[in-house]
Amino acid sequence: MPDTTQKSKAEKSVQGLQHRHLLGLQTYSADEIALILQTARQFRDVLDRPIKRVPTLRGVTVVNLFFEPSTRTRISFELAEKRLSADTVNFTASGSSVSKGETLKDTAQNIEAMKIDMVVLRHVSPGAPQFLTQCVDAVVINAGDGAHEHPTQALLDMLTISDHCGPLEGLKVSIIGDILHSRVARSGIHGLLAMGADVTICGPNPLLPLHLEDMSPNGTVRVTHRLEEALEGADVAMALRIQMERQGRNLFPSTREYHEQYGIKSEHLKRYPDLRVMHPGPVNRGVELASEVVDHERAIILNQVTNGVAVRMAVLYLLSGAAKSSMAE
To answer: Can you say whether the dihedral through the CA atoms of 111, 117, 122, 126 is positive or negative?
Structure first.
């Protein structure tokens, strides 16, 4: 656990993270990602203790600024903040001044006037976290912006993969489903390629991006439209939710047909005995994954949820400046 009794580790951690904000993983190096994952493992030990709280961020105020509905991500961040003893303020657009016409800039500046140190932002518009950094002095963490990025989800996915499969370098990870509209896929591709994994994407042609190089500027992603080809030799298969709300129109005939062609079923687990199955949630049983696959021991979906708290604790700690403060005391 990063604390004042381990100053050498804490000092190395602060020097190792070169970014002030977490807007996405595209510009994060392998060393920075490895640092976050290692710090998350240390904080995961805290979560296994009888008293699951440390004073690491005491005196730091974090606002969770959610302009888009969320359950897992919001609760995970809130829990991470409380486990670190931060002061937490929760803000949702529903019932706020936003519904009366207040802009994101005005909302953020009013909140910062209350002396907020960090902002966790989830927004429907791609680029909103980047815009926010130009409006406020607080540290900004992207909790999902439109179909752009969702970096903490990718980080917790990588931690979960490494827990079950070992070092990420050389691992074969297949991402299956609605790649075009998925911020999880974008962050995951950036992070996995940076860590040396081999990435395959698979799905119906209308759900794959036209310009894949925009999603993978730091490496090569293999593309297939056949599920069997994506699963053959893969260490991990990550199924993605079909995001009807972002499509605007149906890009495939029916969910039943999608499941027949791209849904992972129990027969696939039998055919590929070493395959691990993941899903960022929420899972549509009988669409992306057969119900029996969701409940199978090789489905590590609940491990992703557990790791989410530890990863967000690590991100909050590393970006908060708390390590520098603790060493200066």
So the answer is: positive
